[in-house]
Amino acid sequence: MIKGKDIVIIGIQPWDIEIGSNCKNIALEFAKENRVLYVNPPMDRITQIKQKKDERIQKRIRIAKGQSPDIEKICDNLWNVYPKNTIESINWIGSHSIFKMLNKRNARLLSGDIKSAITRLGFSDFILFNDSSMFLGLHLKEMLQPKVYAYYMRDYLVKVPYWQKHGEKIEPKVVKMADVLTTNSDFFAEFGLQHNPNSYMVGQGCDVSHFSDEDDCIEVPFEFKNIPSPVIGYVGSLTTLRLDIELLEYIANQRKNWSVVLVGPEDEDFKKSNLHKLPNVYFLGRKDGSELPNYVKGFDVAMNPQLINNLTIGNYPRKIDEYLAMGKPIIATKTKAMEMFKDCVYLGSTKEEYVSLIEKALAENSKELAEKRMNVAKGHTWTNNVGAIYNAIIKATKHKIKWD
Fold first, then answer.
1. pLDDT attached to residue 103
2. Which of 34, 120, 135, 209 sees the fewest Cβ atoms within 10 Å?
3. Residue 268: which residues within 8 A CB-CB, separation 6 or more?
């Protein structure tokens, strides 16, 4: 446990992001025992121009002009700073040497805003926790001189086109310079060990209370009244970058008495897919986050039909814990990251395995198995996740820092 310290968090997601964020949950947990400054990513020039009518960009422009305060208090021990300086949009640059030069300039601008904020808040001897900000993070250890520099890796960003061009060269350098690398899967921890011996898999947190149904009070939505059982369901963004359309078509065609229910917004490929022509496939559309437990409640089997690619191979799907919290049988694609769930999730590698494992899940489901799944989810709390992060930091730095 780390208590009574100052922690500065940088990352690639702002506090006012509209979707759920691992880093925000971690920040809230850090703040229970420490003072925390959450640094929004700085506004870049192109975003400022292209999205100038967006209220969130308007707010950043007002802050940059000194018309609004740059530091906001979120709760006890937690502050959010909006960097005043606008950085240059440089990722399009082909020359890596020119990119590096301008990237260092951007990092210098950001470090100035962070120094200003930590001075006003009275932070000292702080831990710098970097959530995947590989470009700016390349120089912030040198410029900010934190007591500990921790890098958090939870997505294979260097395989995403935006990050790949320069990230494949830069992220290994950031991992190497970090005092400790924390990851949410064994896949990323093994990647990290190639560059840093202090690489630890710390798991993933989840607010399972939102999905808890031990008292059976969550109601199934009315849409399910006209959907025949058994229901094989998925909740989340329907994107062909991550999900296997051919697998879903195969399941629906092989078992026409099953209802395949998909809850979430569709990308263009999903909208054009043959799934819309199949009578036993139901698209229920985008739902508010508060409603998702109700839809999962309507599933007989929950699934995560991922493609195996660079985006998903190391991915820890947050929805697995949400499914488990409701005690649902789960079928998911077998990946390195999913091996940690092998005792409570059915893992398939082929279309044929998916169908047979869904049949098995339907046949052997029981109250005892549901309780086992719920207990697994209860162990994946943000408190436990942050506790593992603390332990990794202490273990990696115990030779040079005396922790209380």
1. 95
2. 209
3. none
Residue whose token pair is 């998925």:
234
Q: Which residues of the chain have pLDDT under 50?
A: none
pLDDT at 48: 83
Contacts of 364 (CB under 8 A, 6+ apart): none
Sketch out the chain's domains with CATH numbers.
6-205+382-397 (3.40.50.2000), 209-378 (3.40.50.2000)
pLDDT of residue 323: 93
Provide DSSP, 240-307: TTTB-HHHHHHHHHH-TTSEEEEES-B-HHHHHSGGGG-TTEEEEE---GGGHHHHHHT-SEEEE-B-
Per-residue confidence (pLDDT) for residue 102, from 0 to 100? 95
How do beta strands 346-348 and 148-153 pair? Answer: unpaired
Q: How far is Cα 401 from Cα 125, in angstroms, rounded to an integer?
A: 11
Question: What is the radius of gyration, based on Cα positions, of the chain?
Answer: 22
Mutual angle of helices 96-121 and 134-144, in 10-degree steps? 50
Instruction: Tokens 């999900």: give the residue.
Output: 243
How buried is 203 (Cβ within 10 angstroms: 0-12 exposed, 13-18 middle, 19+ buried)? buried
CB 191 within 8 A of CB 314: yes
Residue with tokens 């986050």: 289
> What local confidence, expressed as pLDDT, does residue 284 receive?
95
- Global pTM value: 0.83
Contact 386, 179 (CB under 8 A): no
Tokens at 387, concatenated: 């506790």
